[in-house]
């Protein structure tokens, strides 16, 4: 069976953000598994204005094309005012079918592991028909980042990260059959 394509989506776009460090950690561990094609997907690269504020058909097309290539997602989620960042919500709003019937895992961070943001994201993913898996590495800004800036994850998160990836691949493979053209099912 062909390997699944899994996008590791960086949820924050602010200058000085921590999400690239977390995304690289996920990618490094995921790549070592060799069980899927993992890639970092950086919302910044798509230059998405706030939805509807201006004509952004080219950016929207590029974003949807990238999402359409993917079978599943790992969202790198940071907590902003007890929810997800505005940039991640905006990027979620920019697509519909390209999200549907795919799997997702969440890696979050914040003062309490980004748990409140992760739970908000789960509600949004339900509306987009994305199957978000249970296992969820939740990283602490206090203990997994040195001086709140340099990512040094505790070893215990490895178990959850691998468990989450196992579930994303299992559900991602199952859901791919729903998206296959009828003749191939
Ligand atoms: C506007 C704003 C609101 C925030 N609100 C929360 C919050 O409610 N809970 C929390 O744990 N951290 C909060 N934080 C801290 C962020 O989780 C932390 O700065 C994190 O590094 C942001 O992710 P980023 O570096 O990838 O942008 C907030 C940060 C910002 C900029």
Distance, first to last CA: 14 Å
- Class computed from helices, strands and strand pairing: alpha/beta
Looking at CATH, the homologous superfamily is Flavodoxin domain
Q: Specify the number of helices.
A: 5
CATH class: Alpha Beta
What is the CATH topology? Rossmann fold
Task: Pick out the low-confidence regions.
Answer: none
Largest sheet: 6 strands, parallel
Q: Which ligands, by name, code or SMILES, are bound? A: flavin mononucleotide
Q: C-alpha Rg, in Å?
A: 16 Å
Q: pLDDT average, as an integer? A: 97
Query: Looking at the structure, what is the overall shape?
Result: globular
Q: Strand portion, in percent? A: 15-25%
Q: Please give the domain count.
A: 1
Helical content (DSSP H or I, runs of 4+): 25-40%
> Would you identify the CATH architecture?
3-Layer(aba) Sandwich
Order of helices and strands: EHEHEHEHEEEEH
Query: What is the count of β-strands?
Result: 8
């Amino acid at each position: 069976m062909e390997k699944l394509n899994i996008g590791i989506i960086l949820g924050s776009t602010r200058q000085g953000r921590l999400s690239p460090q977390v995304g690289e950690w996920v990618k490094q561990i995921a790549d070592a598994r060799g069980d899927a094609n993992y890639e970092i997907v950086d919302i910044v690269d798509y230059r998405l204005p706030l939805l509807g504020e201006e004509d952004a058909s080219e950016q929207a097309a590029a974003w949807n094309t990238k999402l359409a290539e993917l079978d599943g997602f790992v969202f790198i989620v940071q907590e902003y005012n007890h929810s997800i960042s505005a940039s991640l919500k905006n990027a979620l709003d920019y697509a519909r079918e390209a999200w549907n019937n795919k799997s997702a895992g969440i890696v979050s961070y914040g003062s309490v592991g980004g748990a409140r943001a992760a739970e908000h994201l789960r509600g949004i993913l339900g509306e987009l028909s994305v199957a978000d898996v249970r296992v969820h590495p939740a990283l602490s800004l206090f203990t997994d980042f040195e001086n709140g800036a340099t990512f040094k994850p505790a070893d215990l998160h490895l178990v959850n990260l691998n468990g989450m990836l196992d579930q994303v691949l299992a559900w991602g493979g199952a859901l791919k059959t729903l998206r296959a053209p009828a003749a191939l099912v």
